[in-house]
């Protein structure tokens, strides 16, 4: 069966009865037209294309809980630190992209630069979850019935306007983390 040594038509490795002149430019197997996939680098067999796609998802299962925890804890800490410079007011919003970039780098470090499509979402979600700890009591204090209970603990009157800053800060940070991990620089 060493026909392929000589010139002349090859036979598709999946469909031996089909003659072809095409070869996969990655594994060099003969492929027929229905097995060939045109990629930016030329014709490839379906196995190689599938293998290529798998490479984009290099994560291990533990990368997801790890990413969520690191993102949430760092987001929580950053928000805590932010309370000390809250006298800067809305000016602190410009720190959000910097903090987001820092969190993204930390996540990238703990997952050893492994990547997948879902990872940026998990990290962004972690950021939101970590900061929600601050936002939630504020939000609850706006519900009239609970105002008394939480009004004491949070020390005062919160209006919906006071949520603009924290919500803006959370969104800005989460979006930065998401895009950073997707490999897009803002
Ligand atoms: Zn191939
Ligand atoms: Zn074929």
Tally of domains: 2
In sequence order, what are the helices and strands, one letter per element?
EEEEHHHHHH
Mean pLDDT: 83
Beta content comes to 5-15%
Distance linking N and C termini: 57 Å
> Which ligands are bound?
zinc ion
The number of helical runs is 6
Shape, principal axes of CA atoms? rod-shaped
Instruction: Summarize the biggest pleated sheet.
Output: 2 strands, antiparallel
The structural class is mainly alpha
Helix share of residues? 40-55%
Quick one: how many beta strands? 4
Rg, alpha carbons:
27 Å
Give the strand order, joined by hyphens, for the main sheet.
1-2
Quaternary state reads single chain
Which residue ranges are poorly predicted, with pLDDT under 50 across at least 5 consecutive positions?
151-157
Task: Describe the overall structure.
Keywords: Membrane, Transmembrane, Transmembrane helix. The protein is mainly α and 186 residues long. The chain has two domains: 10-56, no CATH class; 62-182, no CATH class. Helices cover 52% and strands 6% of the residues. It has six helices and four strands, in the order ββββαααααα. The chain has a two-stranded antiparallel ribbon with strand order 1-2. A hairpin with a 7-residue loop joins β1 (10-11) and β2 (19-20). The protein is rod-shaped. Bound molecules: zinc ion (ZN) (2 copies). Residues 24, 26-27, 29, 44-45, 47-48 line the site of one zinc ion.
């Amino acid at each position: 069966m060493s026909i392929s040594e000589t010139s002349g038509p090859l036979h598709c490795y999946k469909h031996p009865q089909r003659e072809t002149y095409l070869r996969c430019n990655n594994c060099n197997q003969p492929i027929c037209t229905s097995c060939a996939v045109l990629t930016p680098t030329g014709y490839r067999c379906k196995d190689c294309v599938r293998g290529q796609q798998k490479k984009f998802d290099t994560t291990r299962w533990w990368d997801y809980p790890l990413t969520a925890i690191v993102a949430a804890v760092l987001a929580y800490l950053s928000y805590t630190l932010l309370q000390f410079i809250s006298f800067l007011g809305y000016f602190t919003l410009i720190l959000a992209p910097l903090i987001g970039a820092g969190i993204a780098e930390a996540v990238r470090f703990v997952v050893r630069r492994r990547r997948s499509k879902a990872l940026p979402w998990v990290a962004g979600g972690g950021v939101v979850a970590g900061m929600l700890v601050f936002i939630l009591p504020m939000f609850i204090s706006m519900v009239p019935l609970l105002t008394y209970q939480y009004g004491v603990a949070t020390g005062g009157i919160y209006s919906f306007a006071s949520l603009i800053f924290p919500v803006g800060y959370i969104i800005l940070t989460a979006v930065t983390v998401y895009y950073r991990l997707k490999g897009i620089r803002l």
